[in-house]
């Protein structure tokens, strides 16, 4: 399981190409890439700023990835997460799961994203023409996370 928390822009296609998929038992690779939107709930977004606690953030995301990997028997997982200032159109997060079957790969990506959205120690602030606001996980995010284990 590989976790990288970085402050520079990254290319999801390059990251996926470099991900070690040469595992003999692999039958599926599923990926998710999240991008910074130009607007949220009708509000223009100029930048998204994501804060982390260096060392702790990576360790916690690694713990989450390890838990998902064990629970869903994935062969490998990759998480690349941006911090710092991110502009609309730039990638924020990439999650890739390598598994024996597509269902496990899809479930691993979905579950890990639910954990990242609600449990990862990352703090997000959007800034736009009408000011700045901190972004919190929604009730829907928490509900999806609470029931995530029931779906896999």
Keywords:
Aldehyde Oxidoreductase, domain 3, four-stranded mixed beta sheet, alpha+beta
Descriptive notes:
With 152 residues, the protein is of the alpha+beta class. It has one domain: Molybdopterin biosynthesis MoaE subunit (Aldehyde Oxidoreductase, domain 3, Alpha-Beta Complex), CATH 3.90.1170. The protein has five helices and ten strands. Strand 3 (39-40) and strand 4 (43-44) form a beta hairpin. Helix 2 runs antiparallel to helix 3 and helix 3 (102-119) packs across helix 4. The model has no long low-confidence stretch (mean pLDDT 92).
What is the topological layout?
Blueprint (H helix, E strand, L loop, with lengths): L1 E5 L5 H7 L9 E8 L3 E2 L2 E2 L2 E6 L3 H17 L3 E7 L1 E3 L4 E9 L2 H18 L2 E7 L2 E5 L3 H8 L1 H4 L1
Parallel strand pairs: 1-6
Antiparallel strand pairs: 2-8, 3-4, 5-7, 5-9, 6-8, 9-10
Helix pairs in contact: 2-3, 3-4
- Which spans have pLDDT < 50 for at least 5 consecutive residues? none
Q: Tally the structural domains.
A: 1
Classify the helix fraction into a percent range: 25-40%
What overall form do the CA principal axes indicate? Answer: globular
Mean pLDDT across every amino acid position: 92
How would you sum up this structure in a few lines?
This protein is α+β, with helices and mostly antiparallel strands and 152 residues long.
């Amino acid at each position: 399981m590989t976790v990288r928390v970085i402050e520079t822009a990254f290319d999801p296609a390059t990251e996926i190409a470099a991900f070690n998929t040469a595992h003999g038992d692999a039958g599926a690779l599923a990926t998710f890439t999240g991008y910074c939107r130009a607007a949220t709930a009708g509000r223009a977004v100029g930048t998204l700023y994501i804060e982390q606690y260096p060392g702790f953030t990576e360790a916690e995301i690694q713990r989450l990835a390890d838990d998902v990997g064990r629970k869903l028997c994935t062969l490998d997982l990759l998480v690349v997460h941006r911090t710092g200032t991110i502009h609309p159109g730039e990638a924020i997060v990439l999650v890739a799961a390598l598994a024996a079957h597509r269902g496990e790969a899809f479930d691993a990506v979905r579950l890990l994203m639910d954990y990242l959205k609600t449990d990862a120690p990352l703090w997000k602030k959007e800034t736009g023409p009408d000011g700045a606001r901190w972004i919190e996980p929604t009730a829907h995010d928490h509900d999806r996370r609470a029931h995530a284990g029931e779906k896999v």
